[in-house]
Amino acid sequence: MSKKILLLNGPNLNLLGTREPGIYGSDTLKDIEARAVAQVKESESGCELSHFQSNHEGGLVDRIHAAREEGVEFIIVRFLVFRTFLFLIEIHGPETRY
């Protein structure tokens, strides 16, 4: 059975590639997600990567709760807040409680 990984993208990341590409680059969130999925497949690790994005905290929390029921073992959380340049990346693994 493959290990399940969830890439959880927070507020404003849906604007990547379209909002101030001179600062944030021209890659869209879909581009980044596609590369992440391809890298996991190429790694031959047997892992399965899914992804989700929401601009609403409640949507993100609901997805984390659903992941627990789906047997997701690792959750990678990426938040970006424009203008304050705050980047937050967290990785939650099997030893971490949801």
Describe what you observe in this structure.
The protein has helices at 21-24, 29-42, 57-70; strands at 4-9, 48-53, 72-81, 86-92. With 98 residues, it is α/β, with parallel strands linked by helices. It has a single domain, classed as Dehydroquinase, class II (Rossmann fold), CATH 3.40.50. It has a four-stranded mixed sheet, with helices on both faces. Strand 3 (72-81) and strand 4 form a beta hairpin. The protein is flat, with a radius of gyration of 14 Å.
Give a quick set of tags describing it:
98 residues, alpha/beta, Rossmann fold, 4-stranded mixed sheet, 30% strand
Would you count the extended β strands for me?
4
Task: Please report the number of helical segments.
Answer: 3
Uncertain runs with pLDDT below 50, 5 residues or more?
82-89
CATH homologous group name? Dehydroquinase, class II
Q: How far from one another are the termini?
A: 22 Å
Largest sheet: 4 strands, mixed
Brief account:
This protein has three helices and four strands; from the N terminus they run E-H-H-E-H-E-E.
Q: What are the SSEs and their pairings?
A:
Blueprint: E1 4-9, H1 21-24, H2 29-42, E2 48-53, H3 57-70, E3 72-81, E4 86-92
Parallel strand pairs: 1-2, 1-3
Antiparallel strand pairs: 3-4
